[in-house]
Design goal:
heterodimer, A: 813 residues, alpha+beta, Aldehyde Oxidoreductase, domain 3, Aldehyde Oxidoreductase, domain 4, 3 domains, seven-stranded mixed beta sheet, five-stranded mixed beta sheet, 19 helices, 27% helix, globular, disordered C terminus, B: 160 residues, Ubiquitin-like (UB roll), DNA polymerase, domain 1, 2 domains, 5 strands, 29% helix, binds FE2/S2 (inorganic) cluster
Chain lengths: 813, 160
């Protein structure tokens, strides 16, 4: 049994007290003395030449301090991109400038043109209305395939085309894959769209810039998942502020889901304006602004082909994906459809040959970057859809087809660069079938039929790669950053301690889980341990939280730093007890000498470290504080089986999710309660993507889904109670906790399970529908049923449920 | 315009423009920042407070409309001895919050539900909270928190 509050138990979250009492401190809760307010003037057209901006009337309005335009940023850099991709032909990606405020052209609805800074928010808003940009509208580039066709209008005049890069993995496999597909006994082909998502953390982005003239120091308070990354990018590449004169604080952050990883123009603006005006400047995004300025997610159009031999073994897989970058390259945008997507295309299967091609395309839309899962949901969706389609075409069980092709031996070197350390996919499949009561499904389907409904069951099996690493490898892959994590453990004289982590919590509960880990290692109460995060002035240089990396990478750094502290403390204890260091044991906060009854308490040793009267000064320094930087040897590979049961109303096409179950292998688990919560949230987002959420542009590049009235967020009435299980455990072999990460799994595994369930329901009901693109709105499901009825009897293997692919993932509300 | 009201049992007053929203008066003038703003179309419920005993989205009310009203915000939800209310405690016990941003609005709405329906079913809870969006929890543990606060048995968290 794990100890109370130790690793593997579920103590209540300590951070909840402030969130529940209204004393949380989010960025918008910060108001600095003398603060002015910034309001951005944004483009309302998708593409246009910016011939001038008349700011005179606005500048004369009450309370206006200054109106900023691009001209004020001469001498500053653009918003930088943190990852460079190399194309198949060896050329580096095309990388356009991303100015703080539009220069010469506007390139998406929401592109910032000018900023009004005024005494009050209301005055800034009023004056923003009076800023008059002179924009000559140009044809908008929206459709990805049209964007890369000869003669297309260009988003960036100084680039050769709208193609950012054309990437292949693994290029050397290409011919072998082509041959295997040509020679296969059966090939299943599918064209699909991974719909554009808006991350929509409930807290909109906020930035407060401050400047202290006496020390020439700038401080930025911002809604970020990684304050050190913002400090580095903004200080070194945009504003030329040395890092030691720049502090970035990300206090309580109300959800991130990826979209708060990136460095945004508004952060640089507020920092810059505070220096220029010598007073604090605050910007708070409205939700409407968030829809047109937060980086979006997904938006891939893919053709995938799966080759099988006569015994239904997968022999080869080939994909071609068009990935939307939007108008500019957001911080990690180029990595998402490539290294975070291509490397996952083996999935859980021992397909010997895989080739992935990705063409990244500029369009006149909001930049697209990582959203919960980032590349891995796109890979999983393709794979788990095509395996289901293959099973239907071959008339075999989708469960058995998966099982037959599962990887069973580990470590497993995939044909797409990564090596899985551990996993047991049959175990998670068995567990899934158990918790979904799969055996009872047919009876439930009969019951639905009697009620005039179509019931279906869909599964998906996923592999995830978390904690992307090691740094020297990601450097070779084009990352312009390292991907280690840091921790400092500072022990106080009386034995309490602060753990300063480079990870950042914006809902994940690190203040509880990281304390659990350290409390267990030392054997003291978690109340003695404070977790400090989110402030570059108080934590060592860290990379922040994304990619389900916090416990696997940040947690490992905490373990390493605590080990260093414990090792030093043992030396001190050995001195105090006049014993040899090798005989010292630490348990329950007591140091003992093996084989004796001698002991000394944790607090006595920490006191000796800071009051070193009786102390081995000739051997070790006083004090007890250690820092560790942990750079993992490999990614971690959580995996799992997800099952969804739906009922479709054949009259309306409405889909109801009756049940959803997840059987995950996260390796060891520190706090089961928190892990389950992470899965619940991921499931809601994945089910949301499959059934409701859709970011829609029209052909002119107008954003049609720019509020909660048009963008369907999953609500309490839409979702069932979930069944989640994490009892299948194959610990990670290369980190000290044996943990794998759990933050994104729910969003990765659920979309294909939902879509497979709906298609199962339709096919059981006699509607021969082989695919519907997400979101599976009633209109789309109903149209697919109608189309299938019209095609009845005709052999149309390629019959499409509706107009979807064609290069545009958006435009069909 | 001068307005006066009671907030969390204390009389307050302030000078506002006609267009000032109640939520802005609460957050900016009274500095009670527990009430949050998550949207600009009155869709998310992060700003839910109690006005004269009823749950209200404070972004959809002008400050002047609250003239003379009894307002309760999340800061006024604790028991008299400072401990958390049953609903607040249930949210912690059931892990009904992650980032905490939707949480004050959720607690205010859920507390109002139990006044109307002391022992709500799962469906009643989900229906009542439909106007409160949470992006983190998938609602599962929020539903359990409300059931628990209403004295109904719920499976302990992490033991399902
Ligand atoms: S802020 Fe009031 S409903 Fe969203
Ligand atoms: S807890 Fe984050 S939005 Fe609900």
């Amino acid at each position: 049994m794990p100890k109370d509050g130790g690793i593997g138990t579920s103590p209540k979250r300590r951070e909840d007290i402030r969130f529940l009492s209204g004393t949380g401190r989010y960025t918008d809760d910060i108001n600095l003395h003398g603060q002015a307010h910034a309001v951005f003037v944004r483009s309302d057209v998708a593409h246009g030449r910016l011939n001038g901006i008349d700011t005179e009337a606005a500048a004369a309005m009450p309370g206006v301090i200054r109106v900023f335009t691009a001209r004020d940023f001469e001498g500053c850099g653009g918003v930088p991109c943190g990852w460079q991709i190399t194309s198949r032909d060896g050329s580096v990606m095309q990388e356009p400038k991303h100015p703080i405020l539009a220069e010469g052209k506007v390139r998406h609805v929401g592109d910032p043109i000018a900023v009004v800074v005024a005494e009050t928010l209301a005055q800034a808003r009023d004056a923003a209305e009076a800023v008059m940009p002179d924009i000559e509208e140009l044809p908008a580039v929206v459709d990805m395939k049209a964007a890369v066709a000869e003669g297309s209008e260009k988003v960036h005049d100084d680039l050769t085309s709208n193609l950012c890069y054309d990437w292949g993995l693994v290029e050397d496999n290409r011919e072998a894959v082509d041959r295997a597909i040509k020679d296969a006994a059966h090939v299943t082909t599918l064209e699909l769209v991974n719909n554009r998502m808006v991350a929509n953390p409930m807290e909109p982005r906020v930035a407060v810039g401050d400047y202290a003239a006496h020390s020439d120091e700038s401080t930025l308070y911002t809604t970020s998942q990684n304050p050190h990354v913002i400090r580095l990018l903004m200080g070194a590449f945009v504003l030329n502020i040395p890092e030691h004169k720049l502090r970035v604080v990300a206090p309580d952050v109300g959800g991130g889901f990826g979209t708060k990883i990136f460095h945004y123009a508004e952060e640089a603006f507020c920092t810059f304006a505070a220096r220029a005006l010598k007073r604090p400047v605050k910007w708070t995004s409205t939700r409407s602004e968030a829809f047109m300025s937060d980086a979006h997610g997904r938006d891939h159009v893919t053709k995938i082909e799966l080759a099988l031999d006569a015994e239904n073994n997968f022999t080869a897989l080939r994909t071609e994906t068009y990935a939307n970058m939007g108008a500019y390259l957001s911080t990690f945008a180029p990595s998402v459809p490539t290294w975070l997507h291509g490397t996952l295309m083996a999935g859980n299967y021992k397909t010997p040959l895989v080739y992935v091609n990705v063409k990244a395309v500029f369009t006149n839309t909001v930049p697209v970057d990582a959203y919960r899962g980032a590349g891995r949901p796109e890979a999983t969706y393709q794979l788990e859809r095509i395996v289901d389609k293959a099973a239907r075409e071959l008339g075999v069980s989708p469960i058995e087809l998966r099982r037959q092709n599962f990887i069973t031996e580990f470590p497993y070197q995939t044909p797409v660069a990564v090596e899985y350390d551990t996993g047991d996919y049959h175990a998670t499949m068995d567990k899934l079938l158990e918790i979904t009561d799969h055996a009872g499904f047919e009876a439930r389907a009969e019951e639905s039929k009697r009620n005039g409904k179509l019931r279906g069951f869909g599964i998906a099996h996923y592999i995830e790669a978390c904690g992307i690493a090691p740094s020297n490898l990601v450097g070779q892959l084009g990352a312009r950053a390292g991907l280690y994590e840091s921790a400092t453990v500072r022990v106080n004289a009386t034995g309490s301690l602060s753990v300063m982590t480079g990870s950042h919590s914006h809902g994940q509960g690190h203040e509880t889980t990281f304390a659990q880990v350290v409390a267990e290692m030392i054997g003291i109460d978690a109340d003695q341990i404070d977790i400090v995060h989110g402030d570059t002035a108080r934590t060592p240089m860290g990379m922040g939280t994304y990619g389900s990396r916090s416990i696997a990478v940040g947690g490992s750094a905490v373990v390493r730093a605590a080990e260093k502290v414990i090792n030093k403390a043992k030396k001190i204890a050995a001195h105090l007890m006049e014993a040899s260091e090798g005989d010292i044991e630490l348990k329950d906060g007591q140091f003992t000498v093996a084989g004796t009854d001698k002991s000394v308490a944790w607090g006595d040793v920490t006191l000796a470290a800071y009051v070193p009267h009786n102390y081995p000064l000739e051997e070790i320094e006083p004090g007890l504080e250690e820092t560790a930087f942990y750079d993992p040897a490999n990614f971690t590979y959580p995996s799992g089986g997800y099952g969804c049961e739906v009922e479709v109303d054949p009259e309306t096409g409405h889909v109801e999710v009756l049940g959803f179950a997840a059987a995950d292998d996260f390796g060891n688990v520190v706090n089961p309660m928190i892990v389950e919560g992470q899965v619940h949230g991921g499931l809601a987002q994945g089910i949301g993507q499959a059934l409701w959420e859709n970011c829609v542009y029209d052909a002119d590049g107008q954003l049609l889904s720019a509020s909660y009235m048009d963008y369907a967020m999953p609500r309490s009435t839409d979702l069932p109670m979930f069944k989640v299980d994490h009892s299948c455990v194959t610990p990670c072999t290369h980190n000290p906790l044996g943990v794998k990460g759990c933050g994104e799994a729910g969003a990765i595994g659920s979309p294909p399970a939902v879509v497979n369930a709906v298609l199962d329901a339709l096919n059981r009901g006699g509607h021969a529908v082989d695919h519907i693109d997400m979101p599976l709105s009633p209109a789309r499901v109903w149209a697919a049923m109608e189309a299938a009825r019209a095609n009845m009897g005709a052999a149309q293997p390629a019959a499409r449920a509706q107009e979807t692919a064609g290069g545009r993932s958006v435009g069909t509300p | 315009m001068k307005i006066e009201m009671h907030v969390n049992g204390r009389p307050v007053s302030g000078e506002v423009e006609g267009r000032t929203l109640l939520v802005d008066f609460i957050r900016h003038d009274l500095r009670l920042t527990g009430t949050h703003v998550g949207c600009d179309t009155t869709q998310c419920g992060a700003c839910t407070i109690h006005m004269d005993g009823a749950p209200v989205k404070s972004c959809s009310v002008l400050a002047v409309e609250a003239q003379g009203a009894q307002i309760t915000t999340i800061e006024g939800m604790a028991n008299a001895d400072g401990s958390m209310s049953a609903m607040q405690q249930a949210f912690q016990d059931c892990h009904g919050l992650q980032c905490g941003y939707c949480t004050p609005g959720m607690v205010m709405a859920a507390t109002a539900l139990l006044k109307e329906t002391p022992k709500p079913s799962e469906a009643e809870i989900r229906h009542y909270l439909e106007g409160n969006i949470c992006r983190c929890t998938g609602y599962h543990n929020i539903v359990k928190a409300v059931q628990s606060a209403s004295g109904q048995d719920v499976t302990p968290v992490a033991a399902e």
